[in-house]
Each structure stands twice: as C-alpha cells, then as structure tokens.
Write a structure and sequence with these properties.
The structure is a homodimer of 722-residue chains.
Chain A lengths: L1 H27 L5 H39 L2 H38 L1 H33 L12 E4 L7 E4 L1 H43 L11 H40 L4 H9 L6 H32 L6 H26 L5 H24 L4 H9 L4 H14 L2 H31 L2 H23 L4 H45 L10 E4 L6 H41 L1 H4 L7 H15 L1 H56 L9 H38 L12
Antiparallel strand pairs in A: 1-2
Helix pairs in contact in A: 1-3, 1-4, 1-8, 2-3, 2-5, 2-6, 2-18, 3-4, 3-5, 3-6, 3-14, 3-15, 4-6, 4-8, 4-14, 5-6, 5-16, 5-18, 5-19, 5-20, 6-8, 6-13, 6-14, 6-15, 6-18, 6-20, 8-9, 8-14, 9-10, 10-13, 10-15, 11-12, 11-19, 12-19, 12-20, 13-15, 14-15, 15-19, 15-20, 16-18, ...
Chain lengths: 722, 722
C-alpha cells in the first residue's frame, strides 16, 4: 500500500514538475510588441480578476459544506472535502495562468514560424493537462495515506454514527468510502462553479461582442474598436481552459473514487454469498484480505500509469521535429498516450492477483470514449454530410437553419446512446457495477492528454485575436488561424469525449451511490433498485420524472443567465459607441475594463442559483423521499442530461462549423443570405454548446457525488410511507 | 354486464346522433359568395385527397399488423385491432368533413353576427368531439360484447399458446386483455399516422407560405396571390382537426383499456395474497367473482358518464343566448362538463360495490390535467410575464429571441413534471398501478368537450383565411379574428392538457404492460421491475438510455420531414411567381393544386419512417432484450418524450404569442426589428409546437400499447443472458 501510494505521489510530482517547467519555459518567451503586451495584460488581468471573484463566492460555499460535513460526520471528512476543492481550484488557476501567458507569446512565435507557435501553444495547454492529472491523483494519494487507518483491511467495517446524538438518528457507512467521496465532492463543487461561471462569462461576452460588432456595426471579429473584444478573449481562458480543466478533473476523480468506494463495499460485504460470486468474477477468492490493497488501489495504479503515458506522449509532441502535419503529430501523440495507458494498465493487472476483467472493462471504456468522440466529429465537422447539408439549409434563411441545426443535434444522439447502452450492458455482464466504474476509469485514464490538447485550442484562439488587435502582418493571423483550426477539430472530439466520459463517470458514481445505499447496519447487499414495486410505489417513477425535469430547469437558468448578461453588455457597448464617436474611428481605445467587469459580475452573480439547485436537489429529494426515490432521480437526471448535452453540444457545433463552411466561400460565402442565416444560427448554438452542454456534464456528476456523500443520511422508506 | 355495455352503446349512439345532426345543421348553412365557395371547395378537396392518400398507406400497414396478430394469436385479436383502427380512421374523416364544411359557413355567418359565427364554428368542432367519444366507447362496448366469452368471470384464466406450433415457444396471456389491447393498438396506429402525416403537412405548408410570402415578398398572411395559402388552410384541417382528434381518441381508448387490462389481471391473480391486499384497497374482497363486472367495466361507465356530461355541456354552449362573453361561455361549458363528469363518476362509484378509491384517483387526474393546462397557458399566453419578457427580448434580434424562447420552453417543464410526479405517487399509494390508470381515465373522461373546443379553433382560423382570400369587408375578418383569438387561448390549455393526458395515458398503458409482463404461466404477480440488480444487470439502464434516445431521433426525423417538404414547396412557390408575373399583380390565380399535391406527397411519404420506427422499436427491444429491458425502454422514452413535448409545445407557443404581442403594437409593432425577430422565432417554433410536440404524445402511447399487445412474446431473460 505504501509502495502504491508512493508511486502515485511520485508520478504526481513529476506531472506537476512538468507543469512548472512548461510554465517557466512559456514565461521566458518574448510576448512581442508593446501593443501585444498591453492586450495580453488586459486579458490576464481580467481572467485573474474573474477567477478570484469566483473563488470568493466558492470559498463561502465550500466553508459551509465542509462545516456541515464536520458536524454530521468527522473532521477527516471535512478535511478531505477541503483538500479536494482546494486542489481543483489550484488546477484552474495554474491552467489559466499558463494560458494567459502563452497567448501573446504564441502570436509572437507565429511571426517566426508555425512550429514555434505550436510549441508555445501546446506547452501552455500541457500545463493545465498535467496540473489536472497530477493534483487529482496526488491529492487522492495524500488523503488516503493521511487517513490510512480508515482503509485498514483488518478493521474495515461499517461505522454507525448517531447524528447530533439524536436517539434513533443512526446512520451507517464505511468511513474510508466517505472520505474519498468527500474528496471527490469537493472537486466537483469547484468544477461546477468554474464551469457554470466560466460558461456564462465566455458566452455572454461572445454573444454581446457578435451582436453589436458583427450584426449591428458590421465590424470584423476581434476588432480592437469593439469594447467587448477583450472580454471575449478573457472568456476563452476562464471558460474553455479553466472550465474544461475543472470538468475533466471532476470526471477523473469521480471515476477513480467510484471504483474505490465500490471495492470497499464489496470487501466489507465479502461474507455475503452473492458478493462472493461477484469477487469470483474478478478472480478473487478466500485470499481477499491479503489482496485487499491490490483490489482497492488498482484504480489509482491505472490512472498513475495513465499520467506516465501522457507525460511520454506530451514529450513526443513537444519535442517532435517535424515541421509539417501538425494535426498528425497531435493525433499520433494522443494515440500514443492511449496505447501506453492501456499498456500500463495491462502491466499492473498482470502484476496484481486480479484477473483481466478490470482491464477489459477499462479498454471498453477507452474504445467507447473514442467512438463517441468520432461520432461528435462526424456530426459537427464540415468535412462530413450533416454539417454540409446544414450549410446548404442556411440558404433558406435563419429559421430553417436553426430548425435544421436542432434536427442535426437530435439525430446525433443515436450512436452515442447506443454506445453507452451497449458498454453498460457488457461491463455489467463482466463484473457488475464495479466493471461499469472501471469502464469510466478507462475512458478517463489518459485525461492529461485530453486536457492538454483541449486547452491548446483556446490559446490558439486568443493568439489569433491578439494578432488582429495588435494589427500584425496578415501572415501571422494566417498561422494562428491554422493553429485555431487544428484546435477546433481536436476540440470537437474532445467535447464528445467529455460528454461520454461524464456519462460514464456519472454512471460510476451512481453505481457507488447504489452500493452505499444498499449497505445498512452491518450488512452489505448487491444493489437491487426497483422502478416500481409495492414497497416503493410510484416514488421511483416520480424521482425519474423530477430528475429529468431538473436538468431542463438548470439549462433554462443557464441560457437566461447568458442572454441576460449579454443584454446588459450590449447596452454598455452601444453606450460607449454613442458617447464617444472616436472609438469607431479608431482614434481612441474603448473602455475594455468596464465590459470585463460587467461580464464578470454577471457570471459570478448568475452562477449561484443553478449551482445551489445542483447542490440542493439531491439533498432535498434524498432526505424527504428516501434512497430509492433519489436513485430514480439520479437516473432520470442522467438520462435527460446525456440527451440534452449531446443535443446542445452537437447542434451548436454543427451550426458553428456550417457557418464557417459558408464563410469559406460555399453557398455564396461571406455577406450572402446564407451567411447571415449562419451568423444567427451560430449565436443560437453558442450558449447551447459552450454553456449548457458542458454544465450538464458537471450537473449530473455533482448531483451523483453529493448523493454518494450523504447517502447514509437518507431514509430507506420515506417518513410518510412508514 | 349486458346493461352496462348497453348503456355505453346507447350513449355512444346519442353522441354519434349529435355528430350527424350537427353536420347536417352546418351543411345547411349558406357557404357565402361564389369566391368563398370556390376557396372552400379547394380546401375540402385538398383535405379529402390528403386523408385518402394517408388512408391508403395506413391500410397496408393495418392489414399487415392485423394479419400478424391473427397468425400469432387469434382471429378475434385481429378483428378487434381492425375495428379499433377503422373507427379511429372514421373519426378523423367525420371531423375533417365537418370542419371543411364549417369554415366558409362560419365566414358567411360572421357577415351577420359574431354569435352566429361562433355557433357554426362550435357546431363544426363538436362533430369531431362527439365522433371521437362516441366511436371510441361504442366500438369498445361492441368488441367486448362480441367476444364476451373471453371476459366471463367464471372461466377467465391465463391462456397458453404455442406460437406456430414451435416446441417451447409458449406464450401466456389473458385473451380478453389481448383483445382490448389490440383494439387500442389499432386506434393508436391510425392516430400516429394521422398526427405525424397531418403534422408534417400543416407545418410544411405554413412554413413555406411564410418563408416566401411574409419574408421574401412581404405580402400578408392568407393573401390569395400566395400559391401556398390554400395548402396552409388544408393543413389546419388535416393537422389540427384530424390529427388532434386522433390523438385524443387514442389517449381516451388507451386510458380506458389500461384500467380494464389491469383489472383483468388483478382478478385472475386474486388467489395471491399481495393481490388480495390490493383488492382490499378498492373495497373488494371475497365476493370479487360476483362483483367482477363492476370491477372490470367501471372504466367504461366513467367515460360513458363523461359523454353524457359533454353532450349536456355542448348543448349549453350551443344554445346559450348570450351575445357577449363568448370565452366565458366556452369556459363555463368546459367547467360544466368537468363537474358533470365528476358527478356521474361519483354516482356510478356509489352504485358499485367498490369504494371511492377509483373516484378519488379520477378526480386527481382531472385536477392534474386542468392544472397542467393552466401552466401551459401561463407560459404561452401574452397575458403573462414569460411571453411578454420574450417579446421584449425580440428587440435584441432573432438569435436572442430564439434562445430566450428555448429557455421559456425548458423552464415550463417545472410545474407539469412536479404535478405528474405527485399525482403518480398519490395515485399509487391509493391503489397501485390501477389507481394510476384511473387517474389517466379521469383526465380523459370529458374528452368530448376538449376535442370540441380544440377543433373549433382551426375552423375559426380557416374562416379568417377565407374572409381575407374572398376579399370580404374588414369587419368580417375582425369577427373571425376574434373567434380565432378565443380559439388560441382554449387551444393553449388544450395542448397542455393533451401533453398531460398523454403522459398519464402512457403511464397507464405502461402499468398495464407491467401487469401483463409480470403474469407468467398461471400465476400473476404485483409488478416488480428493477432498474438494476444481478438478474437484469445493466439491461434496464441500457433500455432507459435507448428509449430516451429514440424520442430524439423520432423528433429529428419529423423536423427534417417538415423542413425538407417546406423546401420543395418554397422552390415551387418561387417558380410560380417567376414564371407567371400576373400572379403577383393579382390578375391570375396561382396554381393552388400543385402546392397542395406537393405537401400531401411530402406528408404521406415522410410519415412512413418515423411511424415504422415507433412501431418497430418496442418489438425489436422486447424480442431481443426481454421484458425488463423493454420496461426500461418505455420509461426512458416516456421521460424523454414528456420533457421534449412540454419544451417544444411551450417554447413554440410562447414564440408565436410573443410575436403576436409585438404585432399588437408593443416594442415597435409590425415592421420593427422586434417583429422581424419574432417572425423568425415563430417559424423555428412552429414545427416544434405543431409537429414534434404532439407527435411525441402519440409516439409514447403507441410504443406502450404495442408493448402491451405483444408482451407475451417477449422473453423474461434475453437469450444471451441465459
């Protein structure tokens, strides 16, 4: 056990060392001209200001939730929660810091050569990737090591605690499971705030900049005369870098801890013949006490192997000398990362006393994740039929364009859902819910690579913006646009991957919840959740309906947050142009700071209600209506969230890329009817794909992990049915 | 039993007599000027031609499905199926026939007085209302009476049949339950074709007429120069009258037969102690064999009472002498209908040996249905905040308008879902799934009234169109617009009601499916469906995911069908204007017939794929993956369909009414930026609210009733898990 955690800690340190080195290397590059430094300064300042404001709001929530955990359970649980949330916050800041250093430096490097620019951008992105992986695994290893007494196989048992000493208010749980769940819940809560706040910020700024800039004044994107330009670029950093990193960190941690929690429950319930059957599926038998650490910590070994694989792949990409075929290098690097991850997993499985079931489940997860990514690409890339047909439909006007875009999004649910359904069935057949958790783990084990590649996209986007704003030579913008274009393809696959991994991570967390909820007093069962039977009545069906509904209400709140914030911003931009005609003529700079402040204010203020909804609903449903109803609620929310997230992500992606396809000169090109329709459709799709879709990924994971954490508090049969 | 069925048959005949009388009365009114007769002739001809073309496609499907039922089960099952489908088709034709007679006559009556016009329009609508109720109940009574041997309480038992004589291919079912299920499935299949075909027709015509007329040529709605005008009016009749009637007929039949099927299974399983407990909840005990007919046929008595109540309410509205406060008369009439329905239900319950549980459940259903209707009205009427805020958002352009409209639709899921969830729990607590079926029944028992009021709307809409096309005095259009406006409010409530009732009817049918699926060999259990346990593994979760996905794919197919058909139509309209400039100057009439043919062709051709999907998926899932997976599939589809239907219906309704609110002179009125945005948003919302939403209502009912019908064929454990 010491050896395993030590290895995990060592590899985490290596990952963080890479982050530090890459940040240092990027910071030493030349940020370019005076004007470029100025713009970069604005972006950096805005991003820091927003994330600090966000952090203040988060700190209050985190303090309260931690205090509640302390009061209800033990101080260790609260500490684990704070460690998880602290590290997730740190990952966001580290990534954002590197990204806002790398943007102008990428632009400057693009003045020399494309490969130089790629190196800077990718190094900047890899800071976030390695920080996410390193902090998540290192923190988890630390928490388990600190509270190792609670994982001791000799004394592992189901605790009974009387809440606030109220007679009869006894709750039962495995303390170690509670500690790792709290760690994950802390990371989740931060991820939700980051993703929702950042998502509102980035799209409100983008929408307002486009509405006044492109539509009303017909000035190009990233024009320095537009007061919202800088805010738009800040948004890329806080939303796409900070938000995405937090999102994948959460999936990553959730996948690891759900496998650990299920393993702990299986171990404690090893006396039960059903559970012995389950252990046999993993090749474990009477020696389970000896093999305990392998069984419980194999998930950590898998992701540790994943980090090493990603470090090698990143080094390959970073130090590759090829000038041409950049996309090829990125794809090869990702493939290398995935293969090495699988190789390490095979090695660890072979070393362990377990059979290869966890490994097969993990491979199933990796393959499913990649397949879902490719389906997303098919539906959203202009290289394929759906997006080209959509571009053609733009010729019939905005209404038909939006309608057809929605149809593309709905249609795109077909394959991802079939893949998830088949993977769930196959994994369960292999090894019950634990194998489902391993499938999730497999999908996420090379997260370091995914985050690095995804974070590189917004850096390229920012670099392109800075090139235009600093009025550099058009050849620079061409090179940065090329970076941006490559980023878009990898981002499309990455987004599909994020949805798929969120679905699996949530399934894993729900599975862990079911195991926790099935354990009462000193006995543990294999979970058996009814949809309908005389004991639960219609409660679970009601839970399903309410769960499905909550995701819609959450989405509505987010869309509104974006459009209301954008509206305030639009008023401000119009006011600036009206009050100071010198802005339009280019003689004076607009007041960028005011726009940044307005968006930041909107983002922080409007992230609170949806976040509290996500935090509060599982507690409300669980406490009032019991464990089974909450299981229904989570499944209903998962179903609804998967569908909406796929629909929003792919509809928005297709609308965006179909517009770009028109801009490339098809169906009349820029300035045509089709282009005007495309701009409207893209604006409709933007909050769907960048705010709603990604936030739904987190919503469902957060609600699941909160349910897992507080599972023991929820009654089996609700009070009014006794 | 003879007395009960006799009473039902008698009341049905009375309802049909009203339909006949009202048709005769309407036909005797004066259809107005030469021009009006001509327009009406076109509309009538187009509507007949389309519904006949639809009927031909349906006939093939119905013949095949009936033959399959005959081959698999018994000839009685096939006959019941054909009776159900034949009557549903007849109801559509009767309603459409009356509506296409009433439109021009309403316009003509509006030249005299508003009250006259209302009388004609409402009489025309009541034909459909009473035809739906009369045919549905009369047909059911006929089928039960014809095959009364299969309902004989002395010999009622679980049949075992060996499919095609294949050894081991034994299936078990109650023959009577199979017969009424087949009756309902026949009606459902026709309803799906009517709704999908009509929905595609009406919106493709509407969209094309608006895209070329309002947007490109800036000519007003219903302008006779627009070649698509008549097709648009035909669409109102085949979509809104024929489609809606078929939809509610299906809900109505489904609700009645699900209560009957569950009662039959409970009766057969009366030896089981759990089921004795359930019977006790309904006040029934050892005398169940004597009380059998009361227990099994109470649902029919409830709806028979409902028809009498509706006849009284319709007579009240029709013969009311008040000239003013028309909306008041309609509302009072609906209230009267609901109250009398409740009164009759109370009377029959009191006469029966059962306690008042079925009555309370039915009242719960009525109250829930009305509440959901009011929520829909709140979110879609311009008298309330959401739609007014949306109209305000139109000022920021089309993109913000569509986005905010989607947010309104998503938000509007909140209350309906809570209402459905609470009603499900309360009903189940009262009397298990049978009480859930009774709640559905209550909601639908005054369907005659709902259909009458809803069908009156499109007649008013048509009348307004004819007034413009025939260039009558503006005062006539004012009166018909008033009719139309009242129709819109009642239609909003009606649409919410249709969604709510579809959700409940589907729940009832799923409940009946669960009871059928739980019965094996000669034993019947109280249904107990797991979400996850070692027996079903991840199958049910996979079923939930796939079910949720199918509704999205179905919706995508429908949206595409509309926009592709509209696209062909747009080309045709443009061609006519281009080839013949005399159309625009008004010297020559456009070629209306060609547009009608194109839309009809598109509607019929494109309704096939979604309909086969709806028919085939439950069979595919059930046969391959077994009963439990199919239960998951149905629940997943229900969840997804409820959400999408509410979202589509209310988003579309709010976008439409917000546009009308702008047209009334707010935020700049007609011709303003806000109005242009509103027109686009309305066009996006149209296929959502009039094609997708309503078709989803049917999709879920059809899939549930098909599952119920074929339940016995599906394995308990799928072949690959044995």
């Amino acid at each position: 056990m010491g050896l395993m955690l030590g290895a995990a800690a060592l590899v985490s340190v290596a990952a963080l060392a890479w982050s530090a080195y890459a940040t240092y290397w990027v910071a030493r590059r030349d940020p370019g001209t005076e004007r470029m430094r100025e713009i970069q300064g604005y972006i950096r300042e805005g991003a820091w200001a927003f994330m600090l404001a966000e952090a203040r709001v988060m700190a209050i929530t985190l303090a309260v939730v931690g205090a509640v955990l302390w009061a209800l359970f033990y101080w260790e649980v609260a500490v684990a929660f704070w460690v998880g949330s602290g590290l997730a916050m740190a990952a966001g800041f580290i990534g954002m810091n590197a990204a806002t250093l790398a943007n102008a430096r990428t632009t400057h490097a693009a003045r020399t050569s494309f490969k130089q620019a790629l190196n800077v951008a990718f190094s900047g992105g890899s800071v976030m990737g390695m920080a996410v992986a390193g902090l998540a695994v290192g923190g988890l290893a630390l928490v388990i090591w600190l509270f190792r007494r609670e994982f001791d196989p000799g004394i592992l048992y189901i605790h009974t605690k009387t809440i606030f000493g109220i007679p009869g208010a006894d709750v039962n749980f495995i303390k170690g499971a509670l500690i790792v769940s709290a760690y994950s819940a802390g990371a989740s809560l931060v991820a939700l705030f980051d993703r929702v706040g950042g998502g509102i910020y980035t799209k409100a700024a983008d929408m307002a900049a486009d509405l006044v800039g492109k539509v009303e004044l017909k000035i190009p994107e990233d024009d320095p005369r537009n007061p919202a330009t800088i805010a738009d670029n800040v948004g890329d950093n806080v939303g796409d870098v900070g938000g995405l990193g937090a999102d994948l960190l959460e999936s990553f941690v959730g996948a690891v801890i759900s496998a650990i929690v299920i393993s702990l429950y299986i171990y404690v319930g090893r006396g039960n013949p059903d559970i012995q059957g389950l252990l046999a599926k993993f090749g474990l038998g009477e020696n389970i006490t000896q093999d305990f650490w392998w069984f419980a910590l194999l998930p950590i070994l898998y992701v540790t192997g994943g980090i090493v694989a990603c470090l090698i792949a990143i080094a390959y990409i970073r130090f590759s000398r090829r000038e041409q075929g950049t996309q090829g290098i990125l794809m090869n690097g990702t493939r290398l990362g995935a293969l090495l991850t699988a190789g390490f997993a095979a090695l660890f499985t072979w070393l362990s006393p377990l059979n290869f079931v966890p490994f097969y489940a993990a491979i199933l997860g990796i393959v499913s994740g990649i397949a879902i990514g490719f389906v997303s690409e098919y539906y959203t890339s202009s290289r394929y039929k759906p997006t080209r047909d959509l571009a053609k439909a733009y010729q019939s006007g905005a209404a038909v364009g939006v309608t057809e875009g929605m149809a593309v999004g709905m249609m795109s649910a077909l394959w991802p859902c079939l893949i998830i359904a088949v993977a769930t069935v196959v994994a369960y057949q292999m090894g019950g819910l634990l194998a489902v958790a391993y499938a999730a783990l497999g999908m996420l084990s090379f997260v370091g690579m995914t985050v690095s590649v995804d974070s590189y996209g917004p850096i390229g986007d920012n670099a392109a913006g800075i090139a235009t704003m600093a009025k550099l030579d058009p050849s620079v913008r061409e090179r940065t646009d090329q970076l941006d274009a490559i980023g878009n393809t990898t981002a499309a696959i990455g987004k599909g991957f994020a949805i798929g991994s969120a679905a699996f991570a949530a399934l894993g967390l729900i599975a862990a919840y079911l195991w926790s909820a099935a354990g009462r007093a000193d006995e543990v069962h294999v979970p058996d959740i009814p949809i309908i039977n005389p004991t639960v009545g219609g409660m679970v069906v009601a839970g399903l309906i309410v769960g499905a509904m909550v995701t819609y209400v959450f989405s509505a709140l987010l869309i509104r947050a974006v459009s209301r914030t954008a509206d305030v911003m639009v008023q401000e931009i119009r006011r600036q142009f009206r009050d100071n005609p010198k802005i339009m003529s280019g003689e004076e700079s607009p007041d960028y700071r005011r726009c940044i402040t307005i968006t930041a204010h909107g983002g922080v203020r409007r992230m609170v209600l949806p976040s509290l909804l996500a935090l509060g609903m599982p507690l409300f449903v669980g406490l009032l209506f019991g464990r089974y109803t909450l299981a229904g609620f989570l499944v209903g929310a998962l179903l609804s969230a998967i569908m909406l997230a796929i629909y929003c992500g792919n509809a928005g992606g297709a609308m965006d890329n179909a517009k770009k396809y028109v801009e490339e000169g098809h169906f009349g090109g820029k300035g045509s009817e089709a282009h005007a329709a495309g701009v409207i459709a893209d604006t409709v799709g933007d909050p769907l794909k960048d705010t709603v879709g990604p936030s739904l990924d987190i919503l469902i994971k957060l609600m699941s992990v909160i349910s897992l954490l507080f599972a023991s508090l929820f009654p089996v049969i609700p009070f009014f049915m006794r």
